[in-house]
Amino acid sequence: MTEMVYGAMPLRDAEPVLPKWWRTIDKWSLTCVLILFGIGMLLGLAASPPLAEKNGLGAFYYVQRQALFGGMALAAMVLVSMMRPEMVRRMAVLGFLAAFAALIALPFLGTDFGKGAVRWYSLGFASVQPSEFLKPVFVVVAAWMMAASQQVNGPPGLSWSFLLTMVILAFLAMQPDFGQAALVLFGWGVMYFVAGAPVTLLLGMAGGVVLVGSFAYANSEHFARRIDGFLSPEVDPTTQLGFATNAIREGGFFGVGVGEGQVKWSLPDAHTDFIIAVAAEEYGLVLVLCIIALYASVVVRSLLRLMRERDPFIRLAGTGLVIMFGAQAMINMGVAVRLLPAKGMTLPFVSYGGSSVVAGGIAVGMLLAFTRTRPQGQIGDILRGRS
């Protein structure tokens, strides 16, 4: 009866790994992610050649690198999605320790590449941004703590996760990287709400965010400059936001035509943070709506599958991962149309970036592992296990 209600499929003895993975995976979400990566490669063919030409590189240098990073990301996504939730949790704990150590050492060993924020390690042939890898593993670790607190005589996991979140936010603010800090806080807040946090506590946290934001505005020139640019009634046409806004306006419904866009010649970040402006200018609103629909499909389908999950750890971790995935896409596109202040955040699987796409592959792999169809067991068994 439980399997009929929850849609769980019967366990097959001695079933090979690949057939079992294909039978239980969320094929719609997997397909949407693959399409997003394909769109990113298509847009990279248009957006990256101007930058490659300015840097004296081959026309498709960045496209080839994106294909390499994308291949690594997709391989990681498939491998992680094959893991059992317990294995994902163990991997996430080890990954968190490594990423957190890298984040702590960033002020001493990192570089800013002339952008005013120390967020990367330069490896010569590539760069690594620890915060990108920290996000998904942090979600899993925080979910583990929250789920443990729901057990009888369990540890104070909610308090531990809160303290851990505050420490991470402090290190991100030191870079400064307020965009990633806001994303981490939002993801943790949603998980905390799902875990049963009172609304009054969440409202208090929102008030705290306002106070911290006011302090950052008064003491951080980097933060204040972006807020002032967002609040200004006039958009400077020579800024990145000005170029992006004009490109979106010029694209209209069907775009100006493949390869005919001009914004890629003006925007230094056309292939990363403002890739959606290239899509809007050359392919129009039609492609932008398709991209939004693909992200929405992954979020909605994942949440629907998690709603019938009885394991609190899986439910919390999956919710945090998919909320961060959707929120990052929303923030990136919101910045391009001036609905949000500039954040320096990539569009998952569409923007160019090694750390972003590989970490995104790991995050989605974890999400697919948590949303795989699995037998849920009888509710009586679960209740007896808690007693």
What does it look like?
There is one protein chain. This protein has 387 residues and is mostly helical. It has one domain. It is built from 15 helices and two strands. A two-stranded antiparallel sheet has the order 1-2. The protein is globular. Mean pLDDT is 86; it is low at 1-7 and 377-383.
The total tally of domains equals 1
Element-level helix/strand string: HHHHHEEHHHHHHHHHH
Give the CA-CA distance, first to last residue: 23 Å
Helical stretch tally: 15
> How would you sum up the global shape?
globular
Major sheet summary line: 2 strands, antiparallel
Tell me how many strands there are. Answer: 2
What is the helix fraction of residues, given as a range? 55-70%
What would you report as the Rg, rounded to the nearest angstrom?
22 Å
- If strands are numbered along the chain, what order do they take across the biggest sheet? 1-2
Report the sheet-strand fraction: under 5%
Mean of all residue-level pLDDT scores = 86
